[in-house]
């Protein structure tokens, strides 16, 4: 193992995978340093879960190389499994066992003695706020409780690498916040986390580095701040009081920016990207005032990860021989800034 490989907890180079004529992964590269969170974003069907299954040895890649905690996923899958905790999209718990018994069983399977297994189960039940239901069959748990129990099971052996595939789907806000805190505690203790999520706020809150995947390719990578800078500009949003004035407002906003204004028809709120910040705000309000359009509220804010996600995804898959998705996105962003 090279010195560089020893300083990388998760690495993947040119990973490909197809199912028949369906290409799920088309050369994915990933890298995560120890004690960091790598966030993986992308629309449904982008290839995120396929990549998770490859890294966790549940699926063999057609091409490329990947290592987890220093172990090659193809040549040493047992070594990967000893050093990896996995929580998939759907909670995998034995509904006939109690919550305590589920965690005790996992601990024993990892080779812990009886006393250590009972102690570890108790710690995790407390950490995930499941003590009150610890001795009830997990089949009686709510969906959110089963999800938390599954997350606890992935952490039983304190693995150096944890893969969380949409870990907070179905959780209420309090449980989601508790899960975020647990993930942060793991990272503070040196654990590396690969996180796939549909909650962009979650990636913004937790991830040190984010990769955006679409059509089995990485179309962007960087920190949340870097990805927001890539989108550029600020977002001017305002709500029109009278629905009959929306057409006039749309014309005014379209004339002040090269970007097309978006309208939430339910609330009457327009949003448009602008490169000129406060100047655009003042100009828009002045034009709307002259047109006798009443504005109920207005805001100017930097781009969010939602803006990044929408700008980088949702395009048709490029034909073979055309520019890659990453090149196409870069060209589109350049045009938008002109």
Instruction: Determine the fraction of residues in helical runs and give it as a percent range.
Output: 25-40%
**Bulk shape:** elongated
Radius of gyration: 24 Å
Tally of contiguous helical segments: 13
Strand order of the largest sheet: 6-7-8-3-9-10
Q: In terms of per-residue confidence, which ranges show pLDDT below 50 for 5 or more consecutive residues?
A: 315-338
How would you state the average pLDDT, rounded? Answer: 84
Q: Strand-and-helix sequence, N→C?
A: HEEEHEEHEHHHEHEHEEHEHEEHEHH
Q: Give the DSSP E fraction (strand runs of 2 or more residues).
A: 15-25%
**Strands, count:** 14
Structural class: alpha/beta
Describe this structure in words.
This protein is an alpha/beta fold. The protein is 39% helix and 25% strand. Helix 4 (99-109) packs across helix 5 (114-127) and helix 9 packs across helix 12. The longest helix is centred in the middle third of the chain and has 16 residues, at 173-188. The model is unreliable at 315-338 (pLDDT under 50).
């Amino acid at each position: 193992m090279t010195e560089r490989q020893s300083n990388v907890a998760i690495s993947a180079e040119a990973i490909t995978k197809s199912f028949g004529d369906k290409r799920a992964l088309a050369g994915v590269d990933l890298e995560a340093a120890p004690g960091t969170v790598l966030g993986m974003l992308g629309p449904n069907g982008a290839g995120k879960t396929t990549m998770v299954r490859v890294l966790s040895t549940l699926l063999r890649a057609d091409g490329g190389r990947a290592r987890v905690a220093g172990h090659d996923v193809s040549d040493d899958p047992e070594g990967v499994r000893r050093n990896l905790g996995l929580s998939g999209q759907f909670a995998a718990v034995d509904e006939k066992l109690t919550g305590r018994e589920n965690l005790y069983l996992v601990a024993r399977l990892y080779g812990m003695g009886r006393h250590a297994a009972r102690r570890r189960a108790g710690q995790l039940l407390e950490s995930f706020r499941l003590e009150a239901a610890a001795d009830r069959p997990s089949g009686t748990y709510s969906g959110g409780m089963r999800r938390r129990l599954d997350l606890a099971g992935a952490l039983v052996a304190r693995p150096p690498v944890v893969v969380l595939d949409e870990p907070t789907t179905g959780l209420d806000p309090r449980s989601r916040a508790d899960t975020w805190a647990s993930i942060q505690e793991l990272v503070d203790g040196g654990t590396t986390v690969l996180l796939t999520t549909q909650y962009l706020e979650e990636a913004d809150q937790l991830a040190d580095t984010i990769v955006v995947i679409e059509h089995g390719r990485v179309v962007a990578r960087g920190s949340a701040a870097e990805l927001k800078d890539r989108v550029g500009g600020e977002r001017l949003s305002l709500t029109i009081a009278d629905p009959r004035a929306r057409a006039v407002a749309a014309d005014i906003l379209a004339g002040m920016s090269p970007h097309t204004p978006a309208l939430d028809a339910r609330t009457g709120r327009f949003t448009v990207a602008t490169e000129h910040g406060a100047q655009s705000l003042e100009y828009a309000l002045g034009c709307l005032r002259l047109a006798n359009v009443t504005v109920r509220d207005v805001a100017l804010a930097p781009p969010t990860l939602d803006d990044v996600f929408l700008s980088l995804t949702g395009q048709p898959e490029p034909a073979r021989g055309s520019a890659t998705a990453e090149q196409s996105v870069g060209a589109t962003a350049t045009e938008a800034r002109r």
